[in-house]
Amino acid sequence: MRVKVIECPRDAMQGLKEFIPTATKVAYLNTLLQVGFDTLDFGSFVSPKAIPQMRDTAEVLSQLDLSATQTKLLAIVANSRGAAEAASFPEIRYLGYPFSISETFQLRNTNATIEESLERVQDIQEIGARVGKEMVLYISMGFGNPYGDPWNVEIVQYWVDRLRHLGIGIFQLSDTIGVATPESIRYLFSHLVAGYPQLEIGAHFHTQPHNWREKVAAAYETGCRRFDGAIKGFGGCPMAKDDLTGNMPTEHLVAYLQEVNALTGVDLPLFQKAMKMALDVFPL
Question: How many domains does the chain have?
Answer without folding.
Answer: 1
